[in-house]
Design a protein that fits this description.
The complex is a heterodimer of chains A (402) and B (174). Chain A has 402 residues and is mostly helical. Chain A has helices spanning 6-12, 16-38, 54-84, 99-261, 265-401. Chain A has 5 helices and no strands. Chain B has 6 helices and 5 strands; from the N terminus they run E-E-H-H-H-E-E-E-H-H-H. Chain B has a 5-stranded antiparallel beta sheet. In chain B, 33% of the residues are buried. Classes of the chains: A mainly alpha (402), B alpha+beta (174).
């Protein structure tokens, strides 16, 4: 920087040539400083100002202009540099600035104020984005985890439906078996009923036979009773014959004695008398034999009577037994009929079970298909949640960039 | 040129709100330019100041740690704002709101420093004065200037840590 001593020199010397030289030097200095400032070099100033006249005033004014311009540039640069680094507290100081400088400073401050507001809004937006992200992530994670759970549930449902289906198949096959068994039982019970009816018929027949046997036995008893009375008659007649034979022998004996009395005359008679005696003896002997025979007959008859009575008793007992048997067979028949009804009901029940099992099987197939769809849906939902998360991330990253 | 020892008078000087006090120094802090308002407020003639160290107008009641922070900041290429109490040649004093910035040439090389001072906001001054008093008291506890400066710096950092603000934030919040 050149030293100017125009003012003092001017005062000291009145020489016009020297004044003019000093003035020229001063003007050249002003020109250099201004030219440097115009090039953007605001460091240059006019130094050593001693003139109190218009030249000095001009020099001071130029320095003042440079100072104000320099201050404005420094302030504006600093404020904008800070603003660019988001330090919005650094404003352009307006104190000491006037006119266009002040107006420019105020405009920059207004812009900084606006930028500060935008920055605050951006910070707020980032904060909101963060909060939104947290919330939406929470929701999406909830959805994803619910979908996963739903998928697991659907899978488990599918498995249990499958197992139900298998069990229904087994049950259906069991029901068919049961139906077949029931049919066998029904047929067996029908056979039992037939056999019972046959038994009943036979028992009835046996009963009739027993009654006939009883009647025969009674008749036989009567016959035997007749025989007994006949044998008693024979015994009585034999007794009479025995008496007659005894009297005859006595008579013969008497005759022989009489004949002996008469001697020879009586000899022939005596022979007849002996013959009569002989006959009588033989008669007595024969009746004895008859008596023995009758006794035998009587003993046999008594045995026959006992036997027929035994037969009658036995047949009566048998009759009673048959009646009981008839009642039992009747009850059995009734029970068999009852059993048939029950078996029919059981068959009906089994069919119902079979139908129900079929319905259950159908239901479980539908459940399986629904569960399958649910697994698909849950998986879709998981994918959608994931995709939503991606969209949200993208959206938020775009949001935060602005 | 030797710096004359000036005793403070305690008298306050003021300048206009539409005025700025301007000075430039070289990298060593020697004055290369002072504007008319500077000359008036400090009561020096231009030729008495050019080439003189800037602390020619330094008031003894200013804490050394503030100037240390100031020089550390601008030599690092950053601007700094500070409320500074200056001393006129006759011992009068004047508070300024100083803005000090590095100056670069067209090639971007640091060539010196520049300071604009504006009238301080009275309310801000009332807040900074007790802080400076604390720092000064801390520094004056030490006979040794170096130790005093270190203590002042430590105190300043402690105060900043306590307020939870950087120095810039503190100055701008006043």
């Amino acid at each position: 920087m050149n030293m100017l001593s125009f003012g003092r020199a001017a005062k000291r010397s009145e020489a016009p040539a020297s004044d003019e030289a000093a003035l020229r030097a001063a003007m050249a200095q002003v020109s250099r400083v201004c030219a440097a400032a115009a090039r953007g070099d605001l460091e240059q100033r006019i130094l050593n100002i001693h003139d109190d006249g218009p030249i000095g005033a001009m020099q001071r004014d130029i320095n003042h202009l440079l100072d104000m311009t320099d201050a404005f540039v420094r302030e504006a640069s600093a404020s904008l540099t800070h603003a660019a680094a988001e330090k919005f507290y650094r404003r352009v100081l307006t104190r000491g600035m006037r006119g266009s400088f002040r107006h420019g400073a105020e405009l920059i401050n207004a812009a900084t104020e606006h930028a500060a507001r935008l920055s605050e809004q951006r910070v707020e937006r980032v904060r909101l984005s963060d909060a939104f992200e947290d919330r939406i992530k929470e929701v999406v994670h909830g959805v994803a985890s619910t979908a996963t759970e739903a998928e697991a549930t659907a899978r488990s449902l599918m498995e249990s439906a499958e197992s139900t289906s298998q069990e229904a198949e087994v049950a259906a096959s069991s029901a068919v078996d049961t139906s077949q068994h029931m049919a066998t039982v029904a047929s067996a019970s029908a056979q039992i009923a037939g056999a019972a009816a046959e038994i009943e018929k036979q028992v009835e027949h046996s009963s009739v036979m027993a009654e006939q046997a009883l009647a025969e036995a009674k008749r036989a008893n009567e016959v035997v009773s007749g025989l007994e009375s006949a044998s008693r008659d024979i015994t009585r007649v034999v007794g009479i014959i025995n008496e007659v034979a005894l009297q005859t022998r006595l008579l013969a004996l008497n005759a022989m004695i009489e004949a002996a009395h008469v001697g020879d005359a009586g000899l022939g008679f005596a022979v007849v008398a002996a013959e009569v005696n002989n006959l009588a003896t033989r008669t007595a002997k024969a009746t004895g034999e008859i008596e023995l025979m009758v006794e035998t007959i009587q003993t046999a008859t008594a045995g026959a009577v006992g036997a027929t009575a035994g037969i009658a008793t036995t047949v009566t007992g048998m009759h009673t037994l048959l009646a009981g048997m008839r009642r039992a067979v009747g009850a059995q028949g009734e029970a068999t009929v009852q059993m048939g009804v029950s078996i029919n009901r059981a068959v009906e029940g089994t069919r119902l079970v079979s139908d129900t099992v079929a319905t259950a099987a159908e239901g479980s197939v539908q459940t399986q298909s629904a569960a399958d769809e649910m697994v698909q849906s849950a998986s879709d939902l998981s994918r959608v949640a994931e995709s939503l998360m991606g969209d949200v991330d993208q959206f938020l990253s775009q949001m935060r960039k602005r | 040129m030797a710096v004359p020892t000036v005793s403070p008078t305690g008298r306050q000087r003021t300048f206009g709100d539409d005025e700025i006090i301007v000075s430039k120094t070289d990298l060593k802090g020697r004055i290369t330019y002072a504007n008319e308002v500077f000359l008036r407020m400090a009561s020096y003639k231009e030729e008495e100041l050019l080439g003189q160290p800037h602390n020619i107008i330094r008031h003894p009641d200013m804490p050394a740690c503030v100037f240390k922070l100031l020089w550390d900041t601008i030599s690092a290429g950053r601007e700094i704002f500070a409320y500074v109490l200056n001393l006129a040649r006759n011992g009068d004093e004047y508070w300024v709101h100083a803005h000090i910035t590095p100056s670069y040439d067209a090639a971007g090389t640091l060539v010196g420093y520049h300071s604009n001072r504006r009238t301080p906001d009275p309310a801000a001054l009332e807040k900074i004065k007790p802080i400076y008093a604390v720092l000064l008291a801390e520094e004056r506890k030490h006979e040794n200037k170096k130790e005093g400066l270190a203590a002042g710096q430590w105190k300043l950092n402690a105060l900043l840590a306590e307020s939870g603000k950087t120095y810039d934030e503190l100055v701008w919040s006043l």
